[in-house]
Design goal:
Length: 214
């Protein structure tokens, strides 16, 4: 196996060998261009982010600035929105479902290094996959660590550090992130804590994320 194959297999690898440095450089060039586009260049933003990401749905919008290592290891589903300063260290696969929203300064880390200093100083590192289900909302400044699976319909509170898997249909908060409670049918009528909607169309279906552009 070459170093890229080892990286994608979750094995120890060296990040400067077998063309990995060159691949990251090409991605940085694209990201630099993406982050420099003006708000009026929405079509070019859409074209370029699809070129950067490995796979994405019809509607995807990532606010500038955005950072990642390779881009090709990131898969996002339909109706994906990320606010400012999304960082994805995608040395392993990052799979994100449909109808997912990220607050500002969300960071997803698949990259890791050995704990012992002698092993770490050898230059070997590793990557472990991250998966995020459908209908997930990560609040601002959330960090997702390597080898984490977040289930469907999950809300992760602002500033949380997710170090372990989270099941479906929960609110989770804290550092380390822990389940606070389940999301129930009763939650449907509230827009903030115990404050109920004063409109009738909040339950009419999925909002197309493209409406947030501009």
């Amino acid at each position: 196996m070459n170093q890229k194959e080892r990286m994608l297999a979750g094995l120890p690898y060296k990040a400067w060998l077998d063309g990995l440095s060159e691949e990251r450089l090409e991605t940085r060039k694209k990201i630099f261009k993406y982050n420099g586009l003006t708000p009026e260049q929405s079509e070019e933003q859409d074209r370029l982010i699809r070129e950067i990401l490995g796979k994405c749905g019809e509607s995807v919008y990532i606010e500038q600035p955005f950072r990642c290592d390779y881009g090709s290891n990131i898969e996002v589903g339909e109706n994906f929105y990320a606010n400012y300063n999304l960082t994805v260290l995608d040395v392993a696969r990052v799979r994100i479902g449909k109808n997912v929203m990220f607050g500002p300064n969300v960071s997803i880390y698949t990259a890791g290094h050995p704990i012992h200093p002698d092993s770490r100083n050898s230059g070997y590192e590793y990557g472990k996959e991250v998966t995020i289900g459908d209908n997930v909302w990560l609040g601002g400044n959330v960090v997702v660590n390597p080898n984490v699976h977040i289930g469907d319909n999950v809300v992760v509170g602002t500033g949380s550090v997710v170090t372990r898997d989270l099941p479906d249909n929960v609110i989770a908060v804290g550092n380390p992130c822990r389940v606070l409670r389940e999301i129930t049918e009763e939650d449907r009528k509230f827009y903030f804590r115990d404050q109920e909607f004063d409109v009738d169309d909040y339950n009419d279906g999925v909002q197309d994320i493209s409406n947030l552009k501009g």
